[in-house]
Design a protein that fits this description.
Blueprint (H helix, E strand, L loop, with lengths): L1 H19 L6 H21 L19 E5 L6 H12 L4 E4 L1 H6 L1 H9 L3 E4 L13 H19 L2 E2 L1 E2 L8 H10 L2 E2 L4 E2 L8 H9 L7 E5 L3 H16 L7 H5 L4 E2 L2
Parallel strand pairs: 1-2, 1-8, 2-3, 5-6, 7-8
Antiparallel strand pairs: 4-9
Helix pairs in contact: 1-2, 3-9, 6-7, 8-9
The protein binds zinc ion (ZN).
The site of zinc ion has 5 residues, from loops.
Length: 256
């Protein structure tokens, strides 16, 4: 997307500047500077999923409500705690599950589904070098996660969230081919970095706006500790929590 436009502009700039400055002593410096700026913008685009640089992701809802999304589960300790709170509060969430964990804890996937939550793809391996995988390896990894969910629940997920929020041209190719819709976020809780639940709550409530897609992690105890207060805060501010598919107006599963 934007990457193609930037690449085309950089190509044109290189040619034009090459001609314009050919007979000066600055041509290498100018062409070098253009290339450095290109590399910086590419790096920024990879790590900022919200820039929609390589992949067009959905980061915000269309309706005036917020959606809770949980990544990196299912987790045998914290996912059940989170599911219990969601049930008690009558809130439906979306779980971006890691395929290899879903394979290990199928009962948790069944419970999520039974209790009205959405299950989505967050890759099979969640490998820390997944951004460096070849297109073929990435395709196999994403399809493997879809396969685990399909085998467990008989439903094929339509939503995908890239591990670490990192994207690149290989993701673009694979997501187009697999018809997975990339889902980002507009509000990051930083639950992976906070020291206690109060910091987490503060991170969310200080920025919370209607239409937010909130990023949380159901493998963390601090997230389970903070969840009830977060839900209560939304309610006290008259901010409705609705299921992700409803606020973005997209179907969560492929029709088989
Ligand atoms: Zn993750």
């Amino acid at each position: 997307m934007k990457h193609n436009v930037v690449t085309a502009i950089v190509g044109i700039l290189l040619v034009l500047c090459g001609f314009a400055f050919w007979e000066t002593g600055y041509v290498e410096i100018i062409l070098g500077l253009i290339l450095v700026l290109y590399l910086i913008s590419t790096g920024y685009g990879s790590y900022q999923i919200r820039a929609n640089y390589f992949v067009k992701s959905i980061h915000r809802g269309k309706k005036k409500a917020v959606a809770l999304t949980f990544d990196d589960g299912p987790d045998p300790e914290n996912t059940p705690r989170i599911l219990a709170i969601l049930k008690e509060k009558g809130v439906k969430a979306t779980f971006f599950v890691i395929g290899k964990k879903a394979e290990k804890y199928p009962e948790l996937l069944h419970q999520m589904d039974r209790e009205g939550h959405i299950i989505a793809n967050h890759s099979y391996s969640h490998h820390y070098l997944i951004a460096l995988f070849s297109t073929d390896r990435l395709r196999k990894d994403l399809k493997h996660c879809t396969e685990v969910i399909l085998q467990t629940l008989g439903k094929s997920p339509a939503f995908f969230r890239p591990p670490f929020g990192v994207t690149n041209p290989r993701y673009r190719a694979v997501l187009k081919e697999t018809k997975l819709q990339s889902i980002g976020w507009s509000l990051r809780s930083f639950d992976t970095r906070v020291k206690n639940k109060y910091q987490l709550i503060q991170n969310v409530i200080s920025k919370l706006q209607k239409r937010d897609i909130i990023l949380l992690h159901d493998n963390l105890s601090v997230t389970a500790d903070a969840l009830e207060d977060l839900i209560e805060h939304c309610r006290s501010k008259n901010i409705e929590i609705r299921p992700l598919p409803e606020i973005i107006n997209k179907e969560p599963y492929e029709t088989l």
